[in-house]
Sequence to fold (659 residues):
Amino acid sequence: MDKPKILIVDDDPDLRRALTIRLRASHYDTVQASDGYSAIAVAQKEQPNLIILDLGLPAGDGFVVLERLRGNDALSSIPVIVLTARDPQSNEHKTLQAGALAFFQKPVDNSDLLDMIRTAMPNAWSAAAALPS
Amino acid sequence: MNNGHTHVLLIEDNPGDADLVRLRLVEGDSTVDVSCVNRLADGLASMAKEPPSVVLLDLNLPDSHGADTYREVLEKAPGVPVVILSGQDDEALAMKAIHQGVQDYLVKGDITSNHLERAMRYAIERQALTRSLEISRHQQLEFKNQFLSHVSHELRTPLTCIYQFVTILLDGLAGDINPEQRWHLSTVLESVHQLRAMIRDLLEATRAESGKIRIEPRFVLVDDVVRQAASMMAPTAKEKHVRLEVGLGTRIPFVYADPERVLQVLINLIDNAIKFTPGEGSVMVKACIVDADPNMAYISVADTGCGIAPEAKALIFERLYQDPNSVDNKRSGLGLGLFIAKELVELHGGRIWVASEIGSGSTFSFTLPLYSLAKLLFPVITYAGQLREAITLVRIELTPLPNSHGSNWKDICQQSLDTLRRCVFLDKDLVLPVSGNIGISTIFLVAASTDLERAEIMMKRIREQLGVGAGFKAAGILTVSARAVPLPSTNGKQLEDLVQAVADGVTEMAAEALATKPFQKARVQM
Fold:
């Protein structure tokens, strides 16, 4: 079975690089997108098992991406974890209503993020966990 | 003075005085018009219809006297300049009026035309200045808030990067590191955590200042929050070789509070306590009810640290205050933690204070309001001046399915609660304002004025209605169970005492129900 694939959407290339290293170390495959428009394109092409999504993005912010994902039959069931520098008080409820599974404010503890990823893909994880660490 | 025209509202019941003032103002000045009323109520009505440029106010009117008169005007028409025309030369009253926002206090016998006209003009001018100052202060506060919110957002992005790469190095994901490198990197990571806390406090303090902190109070067991805070802080205490102990009173009823916020206050106090306590010292977290103040829960954090100087005690809850003698000057933070704690406690209707002696430690205490379950239960569990014969506690547990992603669990729970409230007989049963979580499950409790057997009917209805509603079926598992509430013996006891005894029993059962598996009796699973 293939490794579960995670799409990282963030306009900060350094953060994309860091998350890629972190997630690959936990036996996930990763793909990336740097703006809202390419997020949808990459999601369609790669069919990831999960998406980590920033809110402040060029070419369609995180809310636009959430809306497009939900409106697309092929993508609507992919769990989305929002990871943003924005304030939870004014954004958490909105993102959850827009269909995100979880909201984390940057910087998030690695363990919290990885726990949530495992919760979001329980089946995928059991496959990945079987891999040698 | 709109368009150079001054509309004066004169509130004066003495016709002679009124005529005199009118004459003085209008004579030779076509830009002033005066309308005169002789009762305060008429004056307020006139102001509500059309705000005048200035109010000339006699204090003793048929429907109001003395200081009450101007206070009423200031309250009902803030922003309208008020000049008092008084028959009495009372300097103390005049000063009081000016301090409370009146623009001038003139004594009737001393007024000349010129004098009155000028006093009025200056009053209008001063009022306009005060108003523009207020507006600009408000704008500056708003600007500061936006600025801080923006800064904290912008700081988080690079901080995230530092955190990510430091942990990548520390976890060996970029190759092996030697012990010295590990030590240095751990110091970086610690600083990242401090910076993160500072950014959070900065935003929180700004919110507190502008009254924008939100709390979501619900019914919370103090014991749970205290234990949670203690277990979260245990590693910090252990690292510093400080003993962290928890002492809980026999039984503390529910408090009405936001559990996240109470946790935040406790963590802040415990963290401070550990910080200012030398190794081998101890920190004690306690919660209890005090006989003298039975409506509040008392929570305290006591340390065996260096103590606080008397002069610092008064200032310690102030924003940005830092104790200059603090032992840990190296990393003192922003001085916002206690300020935020105070704001949060006061938002809950509690208070916070410190008792301390230099050299022998400090005790920070705060209170939270208790909620009287007995009061809520009274109409439910009594009938014709007696306790009902049977009372049952029904427990409803909603557990999200692991693959229910995309659905909004919080919303589903809220909708389920609304449905639940409609399922029960409103006059006879009570959905307890106690909801809690066990792991990922959400628990609701209903106190029903019925026996176990008849509770089955209610449980069936709950299962049916919750099961179909709120998109629940696809998202979660519903477990409903019930247990009879033991009733106290009634010999010679007052009804109030009996209800209190039942409420205590329900509180205990609720605490148990929120901490354990479903009730075993009459368990039905969907």
Observations:
- Chain B is about 45% helix and 20% strand.
- The mean pLDDT of chain B is 83.
- Chain B touches chain A at residues 149, 153-154, 156-157, 159-161, 163-165, 167-168, 171, 173-174, 192, 196, 203, 207, 214, 402-403, 405-406, 408, 410-411 (CB under 8 Å).
- The first strand of chain B starts at residue 6 and ends at 11.
